[in-house]
Input
Amino acid sequence: MEKKNLFLNDFLKLFAILEFKEKIKVYFCIFAMIISSFFEVLSIGALIPFVTAILSPEKLFKMQYIELFIHEENFENHNLQLIFTIGFIISIIVANSLRIFVLYLATKISKTIPLSLASKIYEKTIKSSYNDIKGINSSKIVSVITDKMDAISGVFFNYLSACTAILISAGVLSFLFYLNVQITFISIIIALSLYLIITFSIKKRLKKNSVILSTSSAARVKHVKETFGAIKQIILNNSEKLFSNFFYNHDKDFRITQFKSQFFMTFPRFIVEAVGIVSISILVYLFYKVYNLEPTYIITLVGALAFAAQKLLPLINTIFICYSSLINSSNFIQEVNEILYDIDNREESENNNIKKDLKLDFNQKITFKDISYKYKRTNNDIIKSISFDLDKGSKIGIIGPTGSGKSTLLDILMGLLDPIDGDLLIDNQKLTEKNKRLWQSKISHVPQDIYLFDASIKENIIFNIFNVEQDLNKIIESAKLAEIHDFISTLPQKYDTIVGENGILLSGGQKQRIGIARALFRDKEILTLDEATSALDIETEKKILENINRKQKTIIQITHRVNELDGYDKIIKL
Output
């Protein structure tokens, strides 16, 4: 396909990704459009006999397409004006009712399709492997499933509106060709020429706007995230104005480009409408002065043309807007396609579901057998040919300098990273993609940096802000083991206290203890701690570890407190 048509190809590629039920909705909408187009033509066709019945009823039955359906003798004793007035009114009501129904379908579909796509991107992203997720630009994903999905919604709405416009326009033009071939042909040539000239003149600008909208959308999200992540430094450096200006510039680029795109897609309608009105005025003059046609015929024909033009011009403009929006949103569509196809083309791992016929017991030990690992962007192995055993129920400490691979080793143990060489064995059974989820279901993890929802302490401990109907006694027991219950009890709303975004209302030590309570609430066999007590004093850390020891779990802890290793069964030094 030629480069100039790639944006259309991208749209069709995006449509192909849709689920079957979404495609059925689109096809049903198009079927409704076909029915609607028929009644639109009928409403225009009903105008001519209506006007003729009012102005010259004696000529009504001499009209060719009226003679095909009704005969004069059947209406001798009837009020023709009233009958055709009612008929015209009914045709208008039916036609516009169907247009409203089609508009309802198109609007609903244009919103539900982005919902489906955004949910698909979100779900597939968080179901990706840990290594893949680490390489994802979160600002880009956030931008795609928010700002850019709004643009996709507009594209689908314009696409469905264009389908309606094309079908109705085809019907109306067919009727106009029936009325007068020459006038209809000339009108089409004039309208198409105008739109082609306008399209050619603004196409490059719309494509440029698409790039600006795409980059500025992601830049806004990225800047806001970075602002809240560095808020302490911003305040201390008195940089509020600087960061505000950065945001203003990113948002300005986005909003101004939106304005330009919307203007470019809207203004052609007024040019074509003006040309149309001028053309009809000239036709009226020519019919009367040059061709000496009867006033009744002129009024009837021009009335039908004006009525048809009043419907056609917005429809033609809708088709133009659809084409323009495809160009304007081409980068958005391309990004969504890239993300969805990139996710779909990754190797389908079976670790997304625990297989019922699989079994993985942990009764004896975990074995690291000649395990090596290196990150994609580095040449040297961060872990090289490590071998050791970890007995069930033991307490293991992992120590070493920064960058020695402590957290990487823990990620391999948890099945988040796959070793480059060597095997991880559970009771001499190799950990694979098939049984990885079974292994991970036995592990609770507490990182150094605890992420907390902007929700209550209770919701953060159970790690579920959607269903808090949990055993409060179990929540309290977990909090007591984490030595945070006494603090929570001093709060006015106790376990219903809201902690703020990422626990901003809590200290680092309080956040860590809530993170430990969260892990203990799950009551799994293995507990891994990655510097999870770094913000706690030594006495509090000892109490927590003594509490956990009573639960008879296998504890694997990365620690920087090398002087406090007496209680460990094994020390792994990297």
About this structure: The first strand starts at residue 365 and ends at 373.
